[in-house]
Structures are given as structure tokens and as C-alpha cells.
Amino acid sequence: MLNITLPDGSVREVAPGTTPADIAAAIGPGLAKAAIAARVDGELRDIMRPLDRDAHLALVTNRDEADALELARHDFAHVLAEAVQHLFPGTQITFGPSTDDGFYYDFAPAPDRGPFTDEDLPAIEAEMRRIIAANKPLIRKEIDRETLIAQWTAQGETFKAQWAAELSGDEPLTVYHSGDGWYDMCRGPHLASTGRLDPQAFKLTRVSGAYWRGDQKNAMLSRIYGTGWLNKKQLQEHQTRLEEAAKRDHRKIGQEMDLFHLQPEAQGSVFWHPKGYMIWRQLEAYMRRRLDAAGYEEVKTPQLMDARQWEQSGHWGKYRENMFVVPDEVPNTDDEGPVLSGEADMMALKPMNCPAHVLIFRQGIKSYRDLPLRLAEFGCCHRNEAHGALHGIMRVRQFTQDDAHIFVRADQLVDEVKAFCDLLDVIYKDLGFDNYAIKLALRPEKRFGSDEMWDWSEQSLRDAVAQAGRATEAYGWEELEGEGAFYAPKLEFHLTDAIGRTWQCGTLQTDTVLPERLDASYVGEDGSRHRPIMLHRAILGTFERFLGILIEHHAGRFPLWLAPVQAVVATIVSDADDYAIQVVDRLKAAGIRAELDVRNEKINYKVREHSLAKVPNLLVVGRREAEEGKVALRVLGSEGQTILSLEDVISRLANEATPPDMR
Predict the structure, then answer these.
(1) Which residue in 41, 84, 137, 310 is a FRET match for 54, CA 20 to 30 A apart?
(2) pLDDT per position as a tens digit, 579-636
(3) Where are the alpha helices (DSSP H) in 188-345?
(4) What is the reported pTM?
(5) How far apart, in whole angstroms, are the C-alpha atoms of residue 54 and residue 38?
(6) How far apart (Å, rounded) are the C-alpha atoms in residues 312 and 358?
(7) CA 315 to CA 309: how far, in whole Å?
(8) Apex CA 395: angle with CA 481 and CA 433, to 5°?
(9) What is the structure's pLDDT at 248?
(10) Cα angle vertex 523, ends 519, 524, to 5°?
(11) pLDDT under 50 in the chain at which residues?
(12) Alpha-carbon distance 250 to 545, whole Å?
């Protein structure tokens, strides 16, 4: 008999071969109906998979939403693959994982058919619903590797055969049968049957191209995406979020507000227009004031450095494929012959600022009394992102980091991390982000440094966040195994925006590796040399991406201090033009960014146009306003207008336009 320990500590004796479903049924019919999977010694498993050893067992229901969604999305992907092969014989299947909000599957269409298109999706959805309604049992079977490879090969499934041959280990592989027919190779787990899925809780969304194994040298496949949920209500809520996200798309709003543009001649680089760059300037000035007050010293470092410097820092070996490499030679100017000799030393555009900041630290002798030393830089960096990965101003090749590196002694580390957490908290709240989560990314498998160093670094960050009062559920505290940088663990700060999406922006990493590799040291109280600890930290992350997040969070309706144009003075009749000019001059003298609109257009047209451009305040003037020294104030998003004296309007707008750190 097996001893199965339940979450309440009770132990049940069961025969080998008993399934978690059997135990759920023995506990009660309600649980038998609700249970969809099981955790066996922490491992998520099929509810119909027999138990073969003493174990701790926890039954999973839809209330365990993270597990339930993972299972449902995995099953939707399998049902999608089965549906496509039923409808389009000759299609080869590859693989199809779950995603953050759904699933996808990659297919190799039959040669005579051509790639799938969005027009195929309705028929595939209908077939998926038929398979779900059939309530086919999903049956796990182990199969010998060579046997499975032979089966895939005989069926013409060359991608599956290749994948099976390359999987590591000698253990048998697992497949899941849908009823008695269709099957796919998969580790699982799965729901007990297709009927456990809600047929109204998924939607196929789009088709795109994808290379086999993500390598452009391999065959092009058709990737079908879908979104999947536990019930129809969740799907509808997700679709509503997508509709709202589309309205807030920073590319759309950026065009409406004339903030920036992108074009193929500068892939992944942003052309900032005057209004967009005004937002940048206001944000940069705000950040500079906050950093000055927090004791940072601003520096500026070179864009281009010798490859030998990057070799010494370790980035050349770990990060070279993401760097723009430049030969250190004068190009050939003759029409004949190659432009470059191929024999020059290599240089690289910096993808990050940290090695250069170490070089500044090394200039002159540093004492223990000089620490902590906080070096900040709004540093322009370049990373060689794939064209397909670029996305508006959120994912670019040229970007500016709000970067800083803090050199500290070991005894200063916890206090410095606490101070950083406090600074970040103030900045996020000033920018309209009241909710954010803190996560600790722990050591990756491939890393520099000793286990002792990693133990100490990870524990120091834990202690600092705890002492700052933020290692709590309210701050979403979580530890992420294996997600640290190759040289250091890191704190990640994840913002939640106005429609519930999360964005990882701020980071803080403790690093003892780079000071060692670049020979940074200070003279301690004992007169000998010591290595500083280097804290890599950012709050916004990059200006480009953070501005994209700000645009979408505020839907273009920025706080007045950030708005590129804070007020427009618009005339109803030409007789009021001179007064309108005086109003604009008075507003500008008070430090308010104001523009004049005296075009020969109807006032309703002007109101609509400036509302679309997200102008926060429209000051309308006509003959009466000119005679009485007043304005009609229309605030973006509100109904109607308020008649105020010009002095009152200036006082009101000047107060609202004051940055939060200067109030």
C-alpha cells in the first residue's frame, strides 16, 4: 500500500495504481467534479496518472488559477493541432506551447497548400469546438524513443522525428492520445479529456510566419495564435482589455499627438518630434533633479570602445551577438576593391554603460571614505535586436538608459539598496504608478563568480528589501529561480498600468565580478586594497520604452507637468486675435507651454482637433472674453466650459503644471 499525505496532514493508504481522481472521488463527489489535476510532491501531473510511490498530494481545481490556465492553454494548443490535421491532411505538426494569455502551434503546411492565413481561422475554430464537444479522453502513454521516431518517420512527420531524436536522456518519451486516434509527443500534463475545456473560452487570433527552431536558416512554418481562458467571462474580459490596449497603443497616440515617428532608414531608432522631445526633456529634467537630491554624480562616457575592453569585462563572450561591431580603420574610398580590409582591430558601440563607469571609478585613488560613490548617466546605447523583435518605441536598437552604478563597501550595501527602493517608490508614484511588484531574480545556470558570492549577494538583497518593508505580499514579493544576470542576482520592479498590464522597468543588481575583472579597488581603513561592490541600477529602464509605457498608461492624457502642450488659446472670431496673442504671451511668461490657434475655422472644429491631440486645456476667447479680460476654459475629458478671469486661469494652470518634486 502507498501512503499519500494530503495538504491537511492526513494520510490515506491506497493501492499502487490509484489515481488522484480516485482519491478525489473518495473524498467527495464535489471534489471529484472540480479536480482537474494534481500536484504530486510539488510536480503538476495528470489527474488520471497512477500513483506509484508514497507522496504528498494536492488536488488542483479551477480556483488554482495559474495551474488551471496553464493546463487549459496547453490543451487548447493540442486541440488546435488535431483540428488543423483533420481539416488539412498532409500538414506536419511541430510544437505548440502555452503563452501568457493563450497558446500557439507551429505547422508545416502540405507543399501543395501554401501557408495558412487568417481566413482559415473560422473553420479551424469550428473543428476545435467539435473536438471539445466530443469529450475525448486525453491518455498519456510512454513509448520507446526509436519506436516513436520510426512512427513519426512513417507518417511523414519529419519535424517530430527530428525533435524526438534530439531530446536528451535515455528514458522513454511520452505521447498523449486524443481518444483512440490522433496523438502528439508531449511531457504533459493535460486535463482528463477535451470536454473539460470550455468551448466558448478561446479565440484564434492571427497567423504569422515562424522559422523551425527559431533559426532563419530553417524551414518557414505557419504559426497560429490563440487566446485561451477557463470560461467565456474571462475571454470577454481579455478581449475588452485588448480593445482598450488598442485604443492606448503608443504608436497610434504618438501619431495623433505628433510625438515621434519611425522609418526603415533607421531601423529601431526613434525620430523624436518637438512635442515628443518636450516630454522627454521634462522627464529627464525631473529625473536629474531627483538624482541630484539623492547624492548621484552625473557622468558621460564614450559610445565606442575597443573590443579588448569588452573582452576584459566579459561582455564580448557573453553578449557579442547583440553588439554592433565597428572596424577601427579608414574605409577604402576607391571604387575598386572592398570597402573594408577585414584586418582591422574591432571596436563596438556600447550596449550598456557599466564597464565605462568602472573606468571612471579607477581614475585616481579611491578611499573607503569616498564610498558610496553614485555615478549616473543618461547613456545612449545600441543593441543589435532582430528586425522582427522591434516594436514601436518599446523595443528599439538605439536607446537611452537612466543608468547608474553605485560603488559601495559590504557594510553599506543594505542601506544603499533600501535608499534605492525609497527613491524608486517616490518616482513611480510621481509618474502615476501606485502599484508595482518586487521580484528577486536568482542565479542562472551559466554564471560568473563563486557559490559563496552568490549566496551572499542574494541574501543581501533579501535583507535590504525586508528592512525597507517591501518583501511583502502587498508588493508582490517573489523569488525567480535562474533569472538573474550572468554576473549578479537582481531585483526587478514590475509596474502595473491603468489597464492591469505589468511592465518590468526598474532593476538593481549586486555585482562583485565586474570590479574584479576590471581591477577596480579602493584603499580601506586598514590601508590595504579592497574590491568595491558594484550596484547596477535603473528606475525607468530606458527612456524610449518608459515613454511608450507612459503614453499607454495615461492614454496620451499626461499629467499637466509632462504634457508637451499645456494649453491652446483658440479664437471664435478674428476680432479676438489680438487678445488671444496677449493671453498666450501671459501664459508663456508664467512658464506654461501654450500655443495659439487663430485659424479661420469654426470653434467646434478646433475643439475636436485639439481634443484628438490630447491638449489638456483649451482656452476659448471671443469678443466678450476680450472685452472682459476672461477666457472660457475647456478641460480635456470634461463636459462644458468654465468662464474665468485670465489671472485665475494662469494661477490654476501654473500650479497644476509644477512638477511634483518642486511643489
Answers:
(1) 137
(2) 999 999 999 999 999 999 999 999 999 999 999 999 999 999 999 999 999 999 999 9
(3) 232-248, 250-256, 274-293, 307-313, 315-319
(4) 0.82
(5) 14
(6) 12
(7) 9
(8) 70
(9) 94
(10) 120
(11) none
(12) 10
Cβ 148 vs Cβ 164: under 8 Å: yes
Contact 657, 566 (CB under 8 A): yes
Between the CA of residue 511 and those of 315, 408, 443, 449, what are the distances in Å? 14, 10, 12, 9
Q: How far apart are CA 76 and CA 223, in angstroms?
A: 14
Is residue 83 within 8 A of residue 128, CB to CB? The reply is yes
What is residue 512's predicted lDDT score, i.e. its pLDDT? 86
Q: Count CB neighbours of 469 within 10 A.
A: 12
Kindly report the number of other CB atoms within 10 A of residue 643's CB atom: 14
Cα–Cα distance between 37 and 67 in angstroms, integer?
Answer: 9
Closest among 95, 44, 106 to 69, alpha carbons compared: 44
Question: Could you identify the residue written with the cell 582591430?
Answer: 345
How would you class 116 by CB atoms within 10 Å of its CB: exposed for 0-12, middle for 13-18, buried for 19 or more? buried
Provide the 3-class DSSP secondary structure of residue 55. Answer: strand
Amino acid 181: pLDDT: 87
Please name the residues in contact with 53: beta carbons below 8 A apart, sequence gap of 6 or more: 2
* 61 in Cβ contact with 36 (< 8 Å): yes
pLDDT on residue 637: 86
Q: Which residues are the active-site residues?
A: 354, 383, 401, 403, 405, 490, 536
Work out the number of other CB atoms within 10 angstroms of the CB of residue 270: 25
- pLDDT tens digits, one per residue of 644-663: 999 999 999 999 999 999 98
The DSSP result for 70-113, as a single string, is HHHHHHHHHHHHHHHHHHSTTPEE----B-SSEEEEEEE--TTT
CA 386, 392, 395 angle in degrees (round to 5)? 45
